[in-house]
Design goal:
This protein has 135 residues and is α+β, with helices and mostly antiparallel strands. 16% of the residues lie in helices and 33% in strands. It has 2 helices and 10 strands. Strands 1-4-3-2 form a 4-stranded mixed beta sheet, covered by helices on one side. The protein has a 4-stranded mixed beta sheet with strand order 5-10-9-8, with helices on one face. The longest helix has 11 residues, at 17-27.
């Protein structure tokens, strides 16, 4: 299983670049593209979107989902990721409840986990056709 990034460069802060490399390259299986001049490590398929892991010293991370990977079979993906050591978050709130780590809404299924640097990540599967959003 390999996760794929779609049409963007996402920059995430990392406290420990070596630990983050093990998580993203080995646990998640993202292809490493190299290093930027500032020491950030770059991930993604050649010619496609990228993920940039930027070393930080302040340890500040977002308190919301920073990146979500679209998958086609979320149940299988969650099982495979768990077998590689990924720990998914479970929720039992009035507006957000997970069952077997997965929250199901009218349009998608989602499962959240933290990377090695405490960034909140998600895998999601669309269960209805995409909606055109008008700004």
């Amino acid at each position: 299983m390999t996760l794929v990034l779609n049409k963007a460069t996402t920059v995430l802060p990392v406290d420990d670049p070596e630990r983050a490399h093990r998580f993203y390259a080995e646990t998640l299986g993202l292809p490493v593209r190299g290093r930027a001049d500032d020491g950030s490590e770059l991930y993604g398929s050649e010619g496609g979107p990228m993920l940039q892991l930027m070393p930080v010293k302040d340890g500040k991370h977002s308190e919301h989902t920073a990146l979500s990977f679209e998958v086609s079979e979320i149940e299988r993906t969650v099982q495979e990721m768990e077998s590689k050591g990924v720990q998914f978050q479970d929720y039992d709130l009035p507006d957000l409840k997970t069952e077997n780590h997965i929250c199901t809404t009218d349009s998608e299924k989602c499962a959240w986990f933290m990377d090695s640097e405490h960034n909140i990540l998600c895998v999601h599967e669309n269960i209805t056709s995409p909606v055109d959003y008008q700004l």
